[in-house]
Amino acid sequence: MSLLSPLSLGGRTAKNRILFGPHETNLGRDRLLSDRHVAYYGRRAAGGCGIVVTEEASVHPSDWPYERAPLASDCAGGWRDVSAALHSHGALAIAALGHAGGQGSSAYNQRELWAPSRVPDVNSREVPKWMEPSDIEAVVAGFAGAAGIARANGMDGVEINAGQHSLIRQFLSGLTNHRTDEWGCDRLRFALDILGAVRSALGDDLVLGLRLSCDEMAPWAGVVPDAAAQIAATLCAAIRVDYLVVVRGSIYTASATRPDMHTEPGFNIELARLIKGTIPAHTAVFAQGSIVSVVDATHAFDSGACDGVEMTRAQIADADLVSKWAAGNPHRIRPCLLCNQTCQVRDPRNPLVTCVVDPSSGHEIDEPLVIKLSPVKRSVCVIGGGPAGLEAARVAALRGHAVTIVEQSESVGGMADVASRGVGRHRLKLSTDWLASECDELGVRVVLNNHELSNNADIVIDATGSVAARHEATDPGAEAIDSVIFLRDSIDQYNGKTVVVLDGIGGPIAVSIAESLAHAGATVHFVTIDQVAGNELARTGDLAPANVRLQQLGVIRHLRSIVRKIGTSGVELEHRFSGAKTFIAADAIVDANHRLPTPPFILESSSHHQRVIRVGDAVAPRTILEAILEGRRAALSI
After folding, report:
1. What gap in Å lies between CA 478 and CA 500, rounded to an integer?
2. How confident is the model at residue 451 (pLDDT cuts 50, 70, 90)?
3. 276 Cβ partners below 8 Å, 6+ apart?
4. Are 29 and 227 in contact (CB under 8 A)?
5. DSSP state letter for 75
6. How high is the pLDDT of residue 454?
7. Which of 23-37, 95-109, 186-200, 454-468 has the lowest mean pLDDT?
8. How far apart are CA 112 and CA 93, in angstroms?
9. Among residues of the chain, what percentage have pLDDT more than 70?
10. pTM (2 decimals)?
11. Most buried pick, 13, 81, 167, 585, via CB within 10 A?
12. DSSP-derived 3-state class of residue 440
């Protein structure tokens, strides 16, 4: 038996034990599941996934947690279309149902939040309404009604959310349930009522799943693992729950449910093992928690910790993960970086879910990844072996073109490999290692340590990347070390030295450099114009954890500070609000500010038919997402 073997779940059988879990996508149109959802989920089913759980739908109008959050009463048509698409590939279609309670938002429906007690949300600071018995009855009825709609429209079952951002978890937890009535004296009552009502609406032949926070990471009042084991055992014994997904997190630890690459994969495996040992045998346990590789997934299953594995981000990165695995080609699976940069979309910008290593994810309709052989074969010379150049070369080779990569350094990888040398960023190299391996499989010729350009190539793709921009406040004779050069050098040389890190972007690079220096024994001053270090890390869920790490390492943060002068002996700062001046004496200054594109590549060839396409940072320095997307588009245009 393996993760690729079938799994019986109540009255249904999944063709394998890999689950694509519910997550926010922003693919909806209004509060409906849309054609974009159908294409998105259908692509994962076509890639071999056995169980696909759709984006959580709110079961009651009082809950509107984000602008495009599906509303169950409006999801009939969407569930019908999704189930048809999934069933055509043999996958089970499960509808996620929930209510965000006090962790929701009042911005869209302009009404009060509902919660078990008047505990302000950590993020919005909004005080919710204490739910009256009639409110509780309405929500229970909403779950049952939503389950009935899912059943009537071809879904194989539903998954109830009692994990992060969940009203049910809020009733289960002493952090948020301060009631003294029957729903406070028995904190399991709300969950039991909902599970019972949903089971009745589904009948015995459909699947009932439960996503349960089994460690709120707030032991002073929250649910701890041992208590969660008893909760799970009670719930699954009272009502037939066909599967349980073990997660963690609370209102105080929102980033813990799906952390970024700083947290090692498989962090919930032992928690899943604990829960599995206490619940009835008829309930399958799914391990969740940054499990993105075949090795980690297999270990979790083979060790007996679980009956199945949720691999959501892994299948956003590679929708064909299961089919490649089943074909005996796990090395061909495009790796997930656990970066959270574009797959985490609870964001004021309302971005569509996508993936930095596969930008067609979430864009299956407008950016389909259909790579066909070109009717005309060309010779293609790619200048630069970073993410943009490697992806351009890979896709061009897939289309049948003869491709050469010319790279001036001793290895391919570009900025992604450089960035991977910072603390907690090592997974970035996985993307370029995979691209390089794929290029090798496809016969792409790679020329290293060379500025050669084949003037005979029909197409030249300029993927030469970016260069450092000299900080405008730098005195003559003074110099700040470019972050790229810094990361390529030995950091140990700064042991005992004072180093100033200038962060003009608010992203992960400066934070990672500061951490690296502190680990190496340097005294580190971190300078930012923002209110908090690493401001943009809020999008990936690493903002609070990053600042905790900086604090623990003793990094001195200079917030709301403008760099007025970079001199030979240090940096002069000005507080952006008070105007107060500060001078920091330093042995070295690292500039992690914006970069500039390389100068345009000029062909020496006189051939009038030769074409040059610029991609990635050579157009404008941005992220790995744009680099890979533009490299791919360039190759598809040939």
Report:
1. 14
2. low
3. 285, 304, 305, 306, 307
4. no
5. -
6. 60
7. 454-468
8. 33
9. 98
10. 0.96
11. 167
12. helix
Task: Supply the pLDDT for residue 79.
Answer: 98
Q: For residue 99, give the nearest of 52, 140, 149 by alpha carbon.
A: 140
Split at pLDDT 50, 70, 90, the class of 188 is very high
pLDDT confidence tier of residue 255, bands split at 50, 70 and 90: confident
**What integer pLDDT is reported at residue 23 of this predicted model?**
97
DSSP string, 124-185: T-PPPEEPPHHHHHHHHHHHHHHHHHHHHTT-SEEEEEESTT-HHHHHH-TTT----SHHHH
In contact, 412 and 436? CB cutoff 8 Å: yes
- Cβ–Cβ under 8 Å, residues 45 and 77: no
Which residues have CB under 8 Å from 489's CB, separation 6+?
Answer: none
Residues in CB range of 353: below 8 A, 6 or more apart: 23, 24, 25, 26, 27, 40, 316, 342, 343, 345, 361, 362
Rg (CA), the chain: 26
Tokens 């890390």 correspond to: 537
Structure tokens given for 20:
């694509």
CA distance 359 to 431: 13
Report pLDDT for 603.
65
Sign of CA dihedral 14, 15, 19, 24: negative
Could you count the other beta carbons within 10 Å of the beta carbon of residue 378? Answer: 16
